[in-house]
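Recall that a protein's primary structure is simply its ordered list of amino acids. Everything else, from secondary elements to tertiary packing, is in principle encoded there. The following example makes that idea concrete.
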Amino acid sequence: MMNRKEFYEYVKDNVKEYLPESYRDAEIKLQEVEKNNGLKLTGITIPNGNQRIVPTVYLDSLYQEYINGKDVDSCVGDVADMRIEAQGKAEFCDMGVPDILDYEKMKDKLQVRICDKEWNTDRLADKVVTEHGDFAAYYAVNLEENGEGISSIPVTISLMNEWGVSVEQIQADAMMADRNRGVQLVDMTQIVESMIFGGTPKNLLNEKLDMETVENPMFCLTNESKMNGASLLLQEDIRKQIGECLGSDYFVIPSSVHEVLILPDNGIFQVPELNAIVQEVNETQVERQEQLSDKVQFCDKKTAVMENAERREARLEKEKVAEKAEVKGGIHGRLEKAKAEIKAKEVDKVPKNKSKDLAAAL
């Protein structure tokens, strides 16, 4: 049985045998691609003629199939099939290449992507990035969006310079484009019911709920396509709308890059417990590249300010201790001042008594 490197080389050396004649002169390359959260995948690129945008076929899952007993040549055939299937999309994207340098044509195609800042330092190095507490936002141009997925390119610093626009402009236009993709706040119970019985869950974003009538208060924030919708969390007016809808402060559970869960702060949930749940779910149920973070956030209903829930509790505890010390110090200070005033009065009396005694003695 071949090891991982041998398998990848075998695919590279033999895939042309399964491809049409137009691929015969292709310069095939293997490359390591860094994805979200430090995940590194091995991809193969197979150009077709002179096309400028070449799709990448990832080999990691195929190697796992090979390890599990699939014939190696069947795996090579699968790579060829995936490359042929991607050709139509590659040709579509290739047609739009000249327009990529035209910002006015691209700004409506922008999308905000969100990730954990600490998990993605290297990956973000050459990207246009804005920081939002525990999160970093980077940006993409979605060349194609449909039911099958999204074809996109990242907005790098060099592309921004070609456009001749600022980071602030990219951020503002990307957030507007995201709003145009639809913002949805949906009851999780309705989502489950729609999966079983069909139907469309109601968008609650502009509602004002009576939380006493909601049996299991848990909500999902995402976009209409449910792709890369977690970034809507970064928009202050959306956070404010959520607070108005719930009528309370709330916790934000970073469930994936596609959505976040919203829990009203009703006194039931404890931050350490929520953090532990998020970490367990990430480890057992969410693919590494789709994990958003393991840091629960807290959002204030009135100010729409979002901050790390654990650090917020520590900050409030520190402020509480400082306030107690100030109160204690204040009382102590007043007592000391009163004692000092009494002592001063006694000192004023002493010389007079002593002068009388001295006169009498004389």
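The first helix runs from residue 4 to 14. The chain has four domains: 4-95, 99-180, 183-304, 318-362.
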